[in-house]
Design a protein that fits this description.
The protein has 148 residues and is α+β, with helices and mostly antiparallel strands. It has two domains: 44 residues; 97 residues, K homology (KH) domain (GMP Synthetase, Chain A, domain 3, 2-Layer Sandwich). The chain is built from three helices and six strands. The strands form two sheets. A three-stranded antiparallel β-sheet has the order 1-2-3, with no helix packed on it. It has a three-stranded mixed β-sheet with strand order 4-5-6, covered by helices on one side. A hairpin with a 2-residue loop joins strand 1 and strand 2. The protein starts with 9 loop residues before the first strand and ends in a 6-residue tail after the last strand.
């Protein structure tokens, strides 16, 4: 199997438990812990970023597939939640992905198939995390833009 280098990130301590992570394109995000664990809650928790990675990976696949099918999506939100085991190291045991799409004339079958392709073929975050946790997916199609 051929391998490709995905890039390198840099993670620098700022103060307390806060780190700034800088990606290969120079874009930075803040990471922190909650006050109970010595942080100030001024950034993402590392385990939250795993959920962000999974949701954004799947979302980018799904929207790309739907656009290739020339379907118009007027809004798209991916909600990802996880259940962690109670004991250390608190790994995710269950993850739920909910795709909420908006648009007129979005066929259920096209959305379902795009999600299946993402999960079964394209999304490396899904492929990795599904080896460690049970992942379930659902979707909803709404007219207009998704609401809170």
């Amino acid at each position: 199997m051929a391998k490709t280098h995905a890039g390198t990130v840099q993670i620098d301590l700022q103060e307390g438990m806060r780190f700034d992570a800088i990606g290969q394109d120079g874009i930075a995000i803040a990471l922190d812990s909650d006050p109970q664990h010595g942080g100030n809650a001024e950034g993402f928790r590392p385990m939250e970023l795993l959920l962000v990675s999974l949701g954004s990976c799947a979302g980018m696949d799904v929207i790309s597939i739907l656009r290739k099918k020339r379907l118009t999506v007027t809004g798209y939100r991916v909600e990802v939640s996880g259940v962690q085991q109670q004991d250390n190291p608190h790994v995710f045991t269950e993850i739920s992905i909910r795709h909420i799409l908006a648009g007129n004339d979005l066929p259920d079958e096209a959305v379902r198939r795009a999600i299946e392709l993402s999960e079964g073929k394209y999304c490396p975050a899904y492929a990795m995390l599904s080896k460690a946790a049970s992942i379930s997916s659902s979707f909803e199609i709404q007219p207009g833009c998704p609401t809170d």
